[in-house]
Structures are given as structure tokens and as C-alpha cells.
Request: fold
Amino acid sequence: MHLRVYKEEVIEGLQRAANIIPQRTGAAYLRSIWIRAEDNRLEILSTDSNIEFRGSYAAEVSEPGLVGVQGRSFVELLRRLPAGQIDLLVDTAASVLHIEQGRRKYKLPVNDATWFQKFSDFPEQGSVMWSGDFFQELIDRIIYCIGDEGAGALACLFMKPGEDDRIDAAGMNGHQFAMIRFVNDDLRSLLPPEGILVQKKYLSELKKWLGTDEINVNINNKRLFVRMENRAESMSLPISSHQYPDYTVFLSRLNGDNISTLKLDRTEAQDALLRIAIFNTESNRCTYFELSAQEAVLSAAGQDLGSASESLDVEYSGTIEKIAFPTNNLLTIMEHYASAKLTLIFTGSEGPCGISGSDDTDYLVIIMPMKILDDINFSEEQV
Reply:
């Protein structure tokens, strides 16, 4: 194999490929970046055995071929080289890749093409267009509510055809739930009735890769496929076989009888919570709300840290006088809203609390209050 490329045309793709492969563990096949030269294109492939990345870039190919190279070493070397032309030549007999740029010459060991395992091809039939930046934002606004690895279905992003011709995208971890409902007829027709689940551990890499460009999306019974509109790069992720909990059970409580509603200024509340967080400790990590018609008194007390109390002008209607929430959780939730005003719907002092905003009409977050044992002790409830 012999080809010539320009660093500035391939380095971003190489770095994305390197982000996927394991750093130290796993088989040599998985720690490799595979480079294939043919038809004046350089194809870059990498996998961690679950996520698959493919990129195709312009190159001058003198001799086609396929070879695996030590992924992170290869990418780090090219990253440190100056911009410009780079020659890649495989010495099959010596099992090395020669990397040359002017008077700079390097060698890296390679894996034979017989080690290569076929990647999943993007299924062309039935693919649909979607907005890359919308998908990226969707992941950002839900991923912090998704459970960690080992939590089964709760460690996944869930997307399914919802009501009113919309799509439900949701995530929960037992204490928080986030959902975006949006309209995309083409994507909705692609989703199976039972929906799909994509594990959280794969979403971070997908989010970093997505940009503002349009993307092609397709789904089969095993994988979610995403490809740039120009077809230069694609990524595929496995679909989980877990069954997602029925979240409509606790959503319906937000529309039930005897709810209480609190309307407050988001920025003022965030500023107050940031100051109150100073007085939280590991064992006492929440903010206590004392509610009346036009005022909410926020407070916290930490052993050896003193106490804090702040008053906010609010609109409140309901029977709940006291309620408590984890301070940092509330702050994280509020960061994901654009609305100046937020509405908190309380279903009980220990029941699910829904958070919505007038400028975030399709976005809902549910947080569970902390059970108040006495003035300064709390235990967390689950959805």
C-alpha cells in the first residue's frame, strides 16, 4: 500500500477515530486504526467492538491496500507534524508502515489485513435526513438524566413514536427524568413502535461527532446509523434489547388533582442556589423550600459550614408548605432551559415534580424531592 495525503484534510477524522478505540485494554484489532487505500480515497475505520466509525478522504493512491496501525501512536504522530503532504507506505515483508514528510521519517508496526473484521455498511434504503445540531442538543438536554452503565434500560436514551404524530426522546435514572417531544414525520416512520434504546456510554462520542450539518439516519434491528450529508464520515451504534419503563404512569400525575404550582425567575433562582450550595455537605446536599403565595424562602444548613437563607418573589398556588431538592441537581436542570420563567408542578412533598418553561414548550424534566426527616436531614425518593 502506498498513498499520499495532506495532514489538514485527514487529521480531524483520525482524531475522531482515535477517540473510539480503547486506550490500553482490548485486542490489538480494537486498538488499531484501519486504513484502506483505493480509488484515490483514504478510508479510516475504527471500533471499540460496539461503536463503529468510518471516514473517507481524498488521497493520491499509488498502490491500494488495507492495513491496521497502532491507532493512538499514529494519530498523535500526525497531529504533531506540520501541515502539508504526508506519504504512507507499507512494507509488507517487514510489517511496518513508513510515514514520511520531507526529511522526517518514521516507522510503526502494522497488523495484517487478515485481522480485519467487516464493519456494518450504512443501509441506504429507507434512510432519512435529520438536523445534526438538533440531535446534538437533544442528547445534551437528556443525557444528564440517564443512568450510568449497569442500570439496564435506565442507562439508555429512549426514542419512540409518541402521541400527536410526535417523537418522544427520554432518559431517566430513578431520581430524574427528561423528555423532549418533537415532530419529524420521516424519522417517526423509521422508528419501530416499541422504540429504540441507545446506551449512554455511546452517546458522548456521538454528541462530540455531530455538528451543525444535516445528517442521514437509518435503523435496523441491531444498530443506529448516522452519516454526514456529504457521506464523508459515518458512525453506527448498537441498539439495546432492554425494555423501557412506562413513564406515562408518573407523567399523568402532573395533570392530576391536588397539584401545587410554583412560578419563579430562572436566573434569580440559579443565583440563589449557587450561593446556597456553599452551605451543602455530602450528608446534607439539598435546598429547603418554604412556600407561600408570593414568596419562597430557600435555605440550607451544613454542619461546621453555617447556614443560608434567601427569599425569592414567586407565584405559588397549592397546599404544600415545605419541600426539598438536591441543590446541584436543580442547578443542572435549570442550565438546560432557555426560558426566563420556570414552572414547578408539585404532586406531593415526596411525589414527582415536573419542571417546564414557556420558551421550552417541548421539554420537560421531572425531579424527585428529598424526604424531609427533620429540619436538616433528608433521604432521596425514587421515581
Q: What stands out?
A: The first strand starts at residue 2 and ends at 6.
